Amino acid sequence: MIPLRRNIVVIFAISFLISLILIIADRNILSSSKDTETCLSCHEDKDLTMEKNGKKISLFVSPEHYKSSVHAGAECVDCHLNYNPDEIPHSKKNELAGCNSCHDNLKGIEKSVHNKVNCYECHSKHDVKPVRLIRENQTQSCLNCHKNKNIRKFSTSIHAKKNVGCDDCHKGGHQTAKISKNEVNEVCGKCHNKNKMAFKNSIHHTVMQGGNKNAPVCTDCHGSHDILTSKVSIESEGCLNCHLNEKLFPGEEKGSAKFVAQYKTSIHGLLRKGDSEAAGCVDCHGDHMVQTPDNPASATAKARLLETCGKCHKETVEKFKKSKHGTEYLKNSDKAPSCVTCHGEHDIKSTLLSDEFSKVNIVEKCLKCHEDGKIPHKNYQGEEELISGYRNSVHYEALKKGNLDAPTCSECHGAHEMENADNPESKISKKNVAQTCGQSNCHQDQKRDYLESVHQKGISEDNKDAPTCNSCHGNHSIVTKKSDDKLAKSKNLIKLCSNCHSSVELVERNDLPTKVSETYNESFHGLATRGGYAEVANCESCHGNHSIKPSSDTSSTINKKNLPKTCGKCHEGAAEVLFTSKIHVSDTQKDSPWVFVVTRLYMILIFGIIGFMVLHNVLDWKKKKKIKKVNED
Amino acid sequence: MKTEDKYLRMSANERVQHFLLLSSFIVLVITGFALKFPESFWVKGIAAVIGQNTFEARGIVHRIASVVLVMVSLYHVYYLFFTVRGKQLFKDFLPNRQDVTDFMNSMKYLIGKSDTKPLFGRFSYIEKMEYWAVVWGTFIMGITGVILWFENFFLKYVTNTGMDISSAIHYYEAILASLAIVVWHFYFIFLNPDVYPMNKAWLKGYLTREQMEHEHPLELETSEKQNTDNIKENLSEKAKDETETKNIAVSETDPDINKQ
């Protein structure tokens, strides 16, 4: 019995083994070769097509792709449900297997914008790729569907160039989502954190927080998919899109659309630098952290203007900083001007081409602050025309008559580099005045003469008493010789020279000739002038004007050698005269002993004779009175 | 007798000379000092009347007056040497020893050291001083004035020093002359108690007997010693003066003289 039992066991074992082999063979070889192979036997034909709704559809399935896809292990029927191979088409109802029957753990897909999109739109149909590969080509696969013009520009965007894909912003995968306005800042901020933080400090962010739906976020300025590098993409157009809209920014105040519109005609807006404006909105206002000027952090706040304008106008700002205006500005003085005080804000105009900076208009610009008394001035006493006197000057008169060579404020004071006269660097410091007045096209001849003069010698020796141009000609209310009243002119001139030359202190300090105006006034020349005669010599007639020199200088008009010529201008006979004594005889005894002797002699005669006469007559009168009285008695 | 009270002092010719002298002198003083003191009130007053050309007018008038003075002076020289009366005048004006004595005695009398008043002839030392002062002054002022006037011509001869000296002399001499006239001459003509308020001889030409007794007793004495024709002549001349003032030669041959 044992052998039988043993045989039975063996037989069972063999039959189990055989059936096991059969089962496996059936499953792996027999069935497979029967299903997928069967399908492919037809569908590997590239020309296999069918017509549906009048369209020809390819029914080709590449066996290689299928076999290399992640679904290589799945049968066609696993996905293509309810098909009957004997019918053509195989299924009346084109029904696919729900992918989620296998892939039932697709997190977040129900929230995604792609919830209703067929899986194969992304994953493709037969050559389903591993997720790793899909991720690599995510952007391309997105663009396969998203053919919107705007989105297609993505491929030329800076993001595309830098390998930033759709998924970097839109999450991608099954969570792909739209980005709401509120989220934009955060999404961009994932990479652009610094800018995100800056934006959060901007006025744009502030108004957005306040519920303003028009407030811009990143994409309003930079664009979304078609984003370029900031240098190219951020043109003022972006800002002006909103800021020129009068509905958004009504009125005419600062900040209004009208106010901003002035930019269009400004030199910043008109001049081009490459493709963009010479200076765009962001160049002054900053970019992400744009603020209103009343915010001290704003690039357009008064305190930061030099920094802002100096980004482009570096040299000018450096000059300005050293100027009186600049130093006051840096002290945060309320009265100190900044760039915009003179140049304006959005309406900034060319100083060379615009009427606003014409020479005549500059005067008004400066006087707006510098009208006498408005700003403390050391020389201003209260009544006289000190600075506004410019309006009475020959300079202004010439300007108004259309002489464009005539100087306005800036010609003498400089524009940005203007300084107090006290500052040796200043164009109007005593040492520099002659250079300033004698600058090219101006009073060059006078300057040349003056530079040879004894007055200039004093200036170059730092002598504070020495006069320069404005000491005689005045400052703002400068006048010329062209006055009609020759006598008044002469008298004024004498008074002018006497201001210094008869000041005892000044004459002593500088060892100048003494009593010059006194002796002049007593001379025939002086007497005639005092008496109202216009055709007589005054200081200038003999001494000259700009090139005034001491008599010791051989080129001086009053050098002994030149006196015959100088005096000969009026006195023909003087040409051959030997000048035997000084003209301004201040010390008669020393300078003109003969006159001294004559004078002394006459003093004796006058006092002696007249004294005697008085005495004689008094006695005579007394005597005669006495006799008369006696006789009458 | 009334007619006997009139003694000829200045002939019509002399009075005209005197008048031209005094008028040009006054004009010269005014226009001269107007140059030197242009800011004084009286110059300003004149300027206010004349206007802006005052200074030029002043110069022109000064020169005109100077010409008048010089012409009168030249005529006077002619008068002194070429007319009968002029020759006598010059003789009488010449200073002599007697004048020194008179002056000494006069001073003694004036200060009370002597009770006798010296007796004077036609011209006392006072008048001689006056006369020669005018001669001197005219001469000095004339020379320096011409130099200053024609400065272009004279500059090369006198140099600027010479101009300065001329100018100084002209100025101081002007002061001296003006003061002398005012103090000396005006006293004896106006303030002098004997003639106060004015000795009218420069207008009328004659002195009264009383004046003659006071001022020129010696002349009176001599003239009284002379024949009455002289007196008559004087009187007739006086009478002629009232009708015709210019021609002395005519009056000298006036037939009325013979009648009287």
Describe this structure in words.
The complex is a heterodimer of chains A (633) and B (260). By secondary structure, chain A is mostly helical. Chain A is 49% helix and 2% strand. Among the domains of chain A are: 1-34; 40-97 and 114-136, no CATH class; 145-301, no CATH class; 486-586, no CATH class; 589-633. In chain A, α33 packs across α34 (524-530). The model of chain A is unreliable at 30-34 (pLDDT under 50). Chain B is built from 13 helices and two strands; from the N terminus they run βααααααααβααααα. A two-stranded antiparallel ribbon of chain B has the order 1-2. In chain B, α1 packs antiparallel against α3 (54-82), α3 crosses α6 (125-149) and α9 (209-215) packs across α10 (217-225). The interface between A and B is large, with 41 and 44 residues.
Helix percent of chain B reads: over 70%
Unreliable stretches of chain A: 30-34
Write down the secondary-structure element order of chain B. Answer: EHHHHHHHHEHHHHH
What oligomeric assembly is this protein in?
heterodimer
How much strand of chain B? under 5%
Averaged pLDDT of chain B: 86
Helical amount of chain A: 40-55%
What is the terminal-to-terminal distance of chain A? 223 Å
Structural class of chain A: mainly alpha
Q: Count of DSSP E strands of chain A?
A: 4
Distance between the termini of chain B: 15 Å
Q: Could you say which overall geometry of chain B the principal axes of the C-alpha atoms support?
A: elongated
Helical element count of chain B? Answer: 13
Largest sheet of chain B: 2 strands, antiparallel
Our estimate of the beta-strand percent of chain A is: under 5%
Mean pLDDT of chain A: 83
Per DSSP, the total helix count of chain A is: 38
Radius of gyration of chain B, whole Å: 21 Å
Got a strand count of chain B?
A: 2
Spans of chain B of at least 5 consecutive residues whose pLDDT stays below 50 are 246-260
Sketch the major β-sheet of chain A. Answer: 2 strands, antiparallel
